[in-house]
Write a structure and sequence with these properties.
The complex is a heterodimer of chains A (450) and B (181). With 450 residues, chain A is of the alpha/beta class. Chain A has 3 domains: 198 residues; 97 residues, Beta Barrel (Elongation Factor Tu (Ef-tu), domain 3), CATH 2.40.30; 132 residues, Rossmann fold. In chain A, the strands form 2 sheets. In chain A, strands 4-3-7-1-2-6-5 form a 7-stranded antiparallel β-sheet. With 181 residues, chain B is an alpha+beta fold. Chain B has 2 domains: 32 residues; 131 residues, Sufe protein. Chain: A, CATH 3.90.1010. In chain B, 38% of the residues lie in helices and 14% in strands. In chain B, strands 1, 2, 3 and 4 form a 4-stranded antiparallel β-sheet that branches. In chain B, strand 2 and strand 3 form a beta hairpin. Classes of the chains: A alpha/beta (450), B alpha+beta (181). The interface between A and B is large, with 47 and 41 residues.
């Protein structure tokens, strides 16, 4: 958990550093009038806002260090949480500076804004950038996001890059803090370039290289249960992906109308490779949820597949204890199936709890049973309706019998606990695990409700 | 360990802010050099139009009377009170004197027509480093538009560009005086 602390420190320190750049330039000593106070507050808001934007981009850049430390979905959760604060800071930046500059020049903020737009180079781009930021954040608000298809949100979200790009010129050419010859300019350039490079490398270059390396094609689509299929892909150099069972990749199936749609799916089995050059197969298990996944059920054999990854914490690398407990619900069971295959434990040291409304929803349960028998694992099937009265992860009859996590796994406090399932359900599991005395760093959770 | 992370982050941030503050206040201590005006030897007063209410106005002729210094011939036939035709300022361009600042010299030139300032050009602007060039680039168009609107040097300085603005307006006032507006 030292690494989590390190990330926290870096994040906070970067915001402090952004403000320190301005302080070191004598920013605070220039505050002599109400106008300069507004201007100063506006500058600080802009610096902090841009720093948060860069942090957001880094959180979404799929940097392995961040992914291994807090996991992909917690990174994206923080990314989402920073959205509104950074927009507020940028709005305050614009408003406070229009007021501050305006007061100093005896103009109202609107005329001052018009002056800035028309007379100061690069400022019109900054106004465009502000409009784009507003568009991106507004379409990402949960209430708005639900009204539009995912694809619409995705395309608008790509505007973030345009928003950041158009905001950069004025940062370096207006205000003087980052003027040529200042050390502040080098620092600011460095963090901008680092963020840009990380995005290009981890989100574009790496995936393109990985896709070219593995040459994946769809080998077949097999039904598992109603609305659930295994997609089997054939490729090469799969030995390089050994140990990634349970982690997820972002897949793109390169057929007309589908190629641009990214699908996050976990491997539901370890890669199998025995041919020359690491040739073999990979498998994901997919439930038909939206129109995007419906198309997947009809994937044609031979369709080329691009991949990004592996991402996520559901791997042996996260282990800290000898004992291990895996708790999965619905389609979230499938990555645990892959993890169960290879993660090390002695017979009797592992427990698997599978949750679903019916036996049919315990996907891959026969494969899991085989693995449990082979490796000496305790296995519980927890089926039935969820409780209507209390919020719990257990079926109603288990609740009525007074069962909790420790009823199934008495020694859970000394085990690594992998949790994979819908968000609300997982929150209840994690709360129960906390009550059972499992320290936070032993809980490895991945949101899994797509 | 959440607390540990937060405490460490807070301490690190406070340290960075403090370091920034230290650097900033030290730099601020040096930056008290006021902009000094050195009128001597400058190229000002190129076209000092003659002033005084009684003189025969040379309005309209570009290129002004070569007489340096105000020639006030008060004893001549006063045409004051007659129609304001004798606007004493000649059309043309007038340079202000060069004002030295710690960021470099500043000099402006005004264009006058019909007794009005029709344009302000900065001949020299603070340019010692990238930052002062940038400040100049931002301040100059704002000052120009304000001066054109106010028709005087009596406008407010541009925030964040105080030294440049002061020097600009000082040079401008010299140019206005020279133009006799």
């Amino acid at each position: 958990m030292l690494r989590t602390d390190l990330l926290t420190v870096i994040a906070w320190a970067s915001v402090a550093a952004a403000i320190a750049l301005w302080l070191a330039d004598g920013g605070a000593t220039d505050i002599t009038s109400p106008a300069s106070l507004f201007t100063a507050a506006g500058v600080v808001a802009g610096l902090a806002g841009m720093d948060l934007v860069l942090l957001m981009l880094l959180l979404a850049a799929r940097i392995p260090f961040i992914d291994r430390t807090i996991g992909h979905d917690r990174a994206l959760e923080f990314h989402g949480k920073l959205g509104k604060p950074s927009l507020y800071l940028l709005l305050a930046h614009g408003a406070l500076l229009a007021i501050g500059y305006g007061m100093a020049e005896g103009l109202d903020p609107v005329s001052e804004s018009i002056n800035l737009w028309t007379q100061v180079p690069d400022m019109w781009l900054a106004f465009v950038s502000m409009a784009l930021f507003i568009a991106v954040v507004v379409t990402s608000l949960v209430a708005v996001r639900r009204r539009f298809p995912y694809e619409f949100w995705y395309v608008v979200h790509l505007l973030t890059y345009a928003a950041v790009a158009t905001s950069i010129p004025h940062q370096f050419s207006v205000g003087g803090l980052f003027a040529a010859g200042t050390w502040q300019r080098w620092y600011w350039l460095a963090i901008c370039i680092y963020t840009g490079t990380a995005l290009v490398y981890f989100r574009i270059l790496e995936p393109v290289l990985a896709s070219a390396r593995h040459q994946l094609t769809v080998a077949g689509v097999e039904p598992v249960a109603p609305g659930v299929v295994n997609i089997v892909m054939r490729g090469r150099k799969l030995d390089q992906l050994a140990g990634t069972g349970g982690r997820f990749f972002i897949w793109r199936f390169l057929s007309p109308g589908m190629w641009w749609h990214p699908h996050p799916f976990s491997l539901s089995a370890e890669p199998v490779y025995n041919g020359p050059d690491g040739q073999g197969t990979l498998r994901v298990t997919v439930r038909n949820l939206g129109n995007g996944s419906a198309q997947l059920l009809r994937l044609r054999k031979g369709t080329k597949v691009a991949l990004e990854g592996p991402y996520g914490l559901l791997s042996t690398a996260a282990r800290t204890r000898n004992k291990v407990v895996m708790i999965g619900a619905g389609i979230g069971i499938t990555p645990l199936r892959a993890l169960l295959e290879t993660t090390p434990f002695a017979p009797g040291e592992a427990t698997v709890l599978l949750r679903g409304h019916t036996d049919q929803e315990l996907y891959l349960s026969s494969e899991i049973l085989d693995l449990c028998q082979a490796r000496g694992v305790r296995l519980f099937h927890l089926t039935g309706q969820r409780s209507r009265t209390t919020s719990t992860w257990l079926p109603e009859d288990a609740v009525r019998s007074g069962y909790s996590l420790t009823s199934y796994v008495p020694d859970i406090a000394d085990a690594d606990v992998y949790v994979c399932g819908p968000a609300v359900w997982a929150v209840n599991v994690i709360a129960d695990a906390g009550k059972a005395g499992v320290p936070e760093e032993q809980i490895h959770h991945e949101r899994f409700d797509w | 360990m959440k607390i540990r992370g937060t405490v460490a982050a807070a301490l690190a941030s406070a340290g960075i802010l403090l370091a920034g503050w230290q650097t900033g206040t030290q730099a601020g201590g040096i930056s008290t050099v006021a902009s000094s005006t050195t009128a001597a030897g400058t190229t000002g007063s190129t076209g000092t139009g003659s002033s005084g209410p009684g003189t025969s106005g040379s309005s309209g002729t570009a290129g002004t009377s070569g007489a340096a210094g105000p020639s006030s011939s008060s004893g001549t036939s006063g045409s004051s009170g007659s129609s304001g035709s004798s606007n004493s300022s000649a059309a043309g361009t007038y340079k202000g004197n060069t004002v030295q600042t710690r960021f470099g010299p500043v000099q402006v030139q005004i264009t006058v027509a019909n007794g009005k300032i029709t344009d302000v050009t900065a001949l020299q602007l603070t340019n010692t480093d990238g930052k002062s060039i940038q400040i100049s680039n931002r301040a100059a168009p704002l000052l120009r538009s304000k001066v054109l609107a106010a028709q005087s040097a009596n406008v407010q300085t541009v925030s964040g560009a105080t030294i440049t603005s002061d020097a600009y307006l000082t040079s401008l006032q010299a140019a206005i005086d020279a133009a006799n507006l």
